[in-house]
């Protein structure tokens, strides 16, 4: 089974459409699933949700999805500086204001996790568990510098064994590690990368018979349309420079 794993779209419809077109052009992907954070920071929250619904792409709730759905006091995002904190509030207030009620209901209906079995549930075989942050909370950052014992602890919470995989997002920085035969996969970000590459990112995961294979893919997209939407909405120029620099500005 070949999965395309996408995450952290953050209301960036042009990036999502480019990724979906690239996946479609391959012609060898069996299923697309998402790891949440569908809204926030860009200007197409309703359109992103509509596109995922049209394509029947299943997935889980990111912190931004669950906080917008419940009208929580903030987005659950981590800020390293006072300016980042200020920008997070600006984005969240804009998203709360512009996300339609039917979109909020769809966000509220997203599950916290998904348990996928590519060989079927009628026999032994590998599992793919999908969460946004960690199996405990969708606000916890599972960064590449977490040690192997942290990975083992998270794996134990969902009963992973050798040959299984767990995929997640939230940090917007892709990475892959194998610990005790288990695969830990950060999918990176479709709509707001933070690894210095502005292009939309996604992961191809082959899971089933034999050893799992993980491939990271990048796709150029119509960033000018995303930028135009941000500026037309009167959102801070910081959001533009962040996108154009791949999170390094």
Descriptive notes:
This protein has a 5-stranded mixed sheet with strand order 3-2-1-9-10. Helices cover 34% and strands 18% of the residues. With 249 residues, the chain is of the alpha/beta class. The radius of gyration is 17 Å and the shape is globular. 44% of the residues are buried. The longest helix is centred in the middle third of the chain and has 17 residues, at 82-98. It has a single domain (2-244), classed as Metallo-dependent phosphatases (Purple Acid Phosphatase, chain A, domain 2, 4-Layer Sandwich). It has helices spanning 13-26, 45-54, 63-70, 82-98, 101-108, 148-157, 223-232, 237-244; strands at 2-6, 31-34, 58-59, 114-116, 128-130, 165-168, 175-179, 182-186, 200-206, 213-219. Helix 3 (63-70) crosses helix 5 (101-108) and helix 7 (223-232) packs antiparallel against helix 8.
């Amino acid at each position: 089974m070949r999965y395309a794993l996408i995450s952290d779209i953050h209301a960036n419809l042009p990036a999502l459409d480019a990724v979906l077109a690239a996946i479609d052009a391959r012609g060898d992907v069996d299923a697309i699933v998402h790891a949440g954070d569908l809204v926030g920071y860009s200007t197409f929250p309703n359109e992103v949700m509509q596109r995922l619904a049209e394509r029947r792409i299943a997935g889980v709730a990111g912190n931004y999805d669950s906080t917008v759905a419940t009208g929580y006091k903030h987005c659950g995002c981590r800020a390293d500086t006072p300016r980042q904190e200020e920008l997070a509030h600006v984005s969240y207030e804009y998203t709360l204001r512009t996300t339609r009620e039917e979109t909020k209901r769809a966000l509220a209906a997203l599950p916290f996790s998904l348990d996928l079995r590519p060989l079927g549930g009628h026999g032994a075989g590998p599992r793919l568990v999908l969460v946004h942050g960690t199996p405990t909370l969708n606000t916890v950052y599972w960064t590449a510098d977490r040690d192997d014992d942290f990975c083992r602890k998270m794996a134990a919470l969902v009963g992973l064994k050798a040959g299984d995989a767990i995929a997640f997002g939230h940090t917007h920085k892709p990475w892959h590690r194998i610990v005790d035969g288990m695969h830990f996969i950060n999918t990176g970000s479709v709509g707001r990368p933070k690894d210095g590459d502005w292009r939309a990112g996604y992961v191809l995961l082959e899971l089933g018979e034999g050893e799992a294979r993980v491939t990271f893919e990048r796709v150029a997209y119509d960033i000018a349309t995303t930028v135009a939407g941000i500026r037309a909405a009167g959102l801070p120029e910081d959001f533009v420079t962040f996108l154009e620099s791949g999170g390094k500005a």
